[in-house]
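Hi there,

I know you've been waiting on this one. I reran it after we fixed the sequence typo, so this is the corrected version. Both the input and the resulting structure follow.
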Amino acid sequence: MSFKVYLSELLSLKDKYEKEKLKSQDMYFQTGVEVDETVLDQLLEDLTDFSSANGNTSLTAKLRSLQNNTDDDYGFIRKRSATEVIARVYRIIRVLETFGREHLERELTPVVEAIEDENQRESTASRNEEALKKVFVVHGHDNAVLFRVKETLTVLGLTPIVLREQSNNGRTIIEKFERFSDVNFAVVLMTADDMGGSLKEIEAGKTSARARQNVVMELGYFIAKLTRDKVCVLKGQGVEVPSDIMGVVYTPIDENEAWRMELARELSGAGYSIDLNRLIQN
């Protein structure tokens, strides 16, 4: 036994007496319902002995004061109403919680920690499961490609996260980006939205098609956060590739839309549950 078990037993006994009281009550006579105290007396006696054996003198003294007294005139324990017995159980519980608090806390701490650990594991699993339904889509100004990518992800049963479609709630752009980038995979659309080159190239009239600066920045962010195998870069024809990430695999945005199947395979490889048949049907 332990103080925790005794407390549990007392709480169960309280519920039992309360149910007996409700079951026996008459709609006109709500007092005078008597219950058997024998179990409570034995439990209190055992708890007192247990407390004494554990050296808790203050708790032991309080528990002894709550034991039933023999009526001096008649020599037997008087019967008590259910209301009185229930009140007595409450007093015992309060004494145990007050004077046995140190013992209870020591016994309950591992239990509480185990519950908290389990809740943490469940919460983490839930977040991971939710994250495996979302895909962040980084885009520039090509809305046609953006729409088709969103449509493809939706067909695959996933939720595309597009920053401009999310509520601001008073956040700055970077705060909003950080808030909604809690995903396991990102699709980056490097479409021909800008033109640029080195000063010499520009002076010579040579410029190249480039993705928007925000797209390049967010590509780097997700490569650092998720690693390269969880980032799929869809690149438009003729778009210049940033030199410091040449090792990244780019999937061309082709007219036959072979990129859709390639994107689905990348998602499957990243741990997403993907049914490739859905793409064939759509």
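Quick highlight: The first strand starts at residue 134 and ends at 138.

Best,
R. S.
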